[in-house]
Amino acid sequence: MIGKRTQLKESTPMGEVSVQSQEGRPAATPSPIADEAAPETQRDDRLARLRSLRSPRRPRIYFEVLLIAVSYWVYSLVRNAVPEQKAAALSNADWLWSLEKYLGIAVEQSVNHAVNSVTWLIVSMNYYYATLHFVVTIGVLMWLFRRHPGRYAAARLVLFATTGVALLGYYLYPLAPPRLMNGGHFIDTVLVHHTWGSMASGNFKNMSNQYAAMPSMHIGWSLWCGLTIYALASAPWARIAGLLYPATTLIVIVSTANHFWLDAVGGMTCLAFGYAVSFAWYGSLPHHLQKRVARPAGARLSALGPGAPIRVGQPAAEAPVRR
């Protein structure tokens, strides 16, 4: 027992016996090897935590709903808080229109007038522009959540990064849509046909920044949806629909005079940035990740129960196959 007085007998060379007493044992001296290994252990722990953060996790429905709702609210708040800078936006629109004429791709006005002459078609496009932008995007997120949980977080990061960099574009390059150009002779199809459509037209024009046309998030989001469906859907018709959706959206944004062709290029550029961010974080594109998130070994072992038999040669953490 530590602290107890003990006596030790020791034989001397002369054959005599001397008695020594000591009070307990001295405290153990830290090992220099353990001290040197401590920083390496801490570094390994930090790397392990970083790898854990970069590994796809099983999404949780309540967290995802809250995250998407808050993110869209912040996006709308920031987008609409960007100074409208009407003079600069109109000047940029004139310059962009002149550039398209120089490049020989300034067909927006002809498309706008041609489609506007078919009432049922342009009215359908007005509703398409106002609704599918949100409905399809949310639908694809829900599909990923349920059918591809291992790829959900990476795909969601693509969408969020795309939208985030778009806000920077709205701030740095205010741009008026074609329907608001001075002397552009474009038709605002929502006003002409009295349909509920763009938040930047009619009764909603005071609720949204009308001079945030570059880049087009209708193209950025629709192309994200289309590429995701094409890469992950198994049915051929679904993959074809995935490719047709952004192509149709491009026709709609031009026909309704809400965007130039080059706004669509801006949206594609933002989407490329979003994929780059996701690749840098997860080390792979979303569709190359595992479809489902692997359960931890401890969780699989506990799922077997304490009395479950383990076969020789079978890993202890392997769960029984369910058919």
Characterization of the model:
It is a single chain. β1 (5-11) and β2 form a beta hairpin. Residues 1-22, 297-304 and 307-323 have low confidence and may be disordered. α2 (61-81) packs parallel to α6 (149-172) and α8 (217-232) crosses α10. The chain starts with a strand and ends in a 19-residue tail after the last helix. It has helices spanning 32-54, 61-81, 86-103, 108-116, 119-147, 149-172, 189-193, 217-232, 236-255, 261-282, 297-304, and strands at 5-11, 17-23. Strands 1-2 form a two-stranded antiparallel sheet. By secondary structure, the protein is mainly alpha-helical. The radius of gyration is 32 Å and the shape is globular.
- Range of strand content: under 5%
> Helix and strand succession?
EEHHHHHHHHHHH
Name the overall outline. Answer: globular
What portion of residues is helical?
Answer: 55-70%
Query: How would you characterize the largest beta sheet?
Result: 2 strands, antiparallel
Structural class: mainly alpha
Helix count equals: 11
Please tally the β strands and state the result.
Answer: 2
- Enumerate the spans where pLDDT stays under 50 for 5 or more consecutive residues: 1-22, 297-304, 307-323
What is the arithmetic mean of pLDDT?
79
Strands of the largest sheet, in order across it? 1-2
Distance between the first and last residues' Cα: 61 Å
Tell me the Rg in angstroms: 32 Å
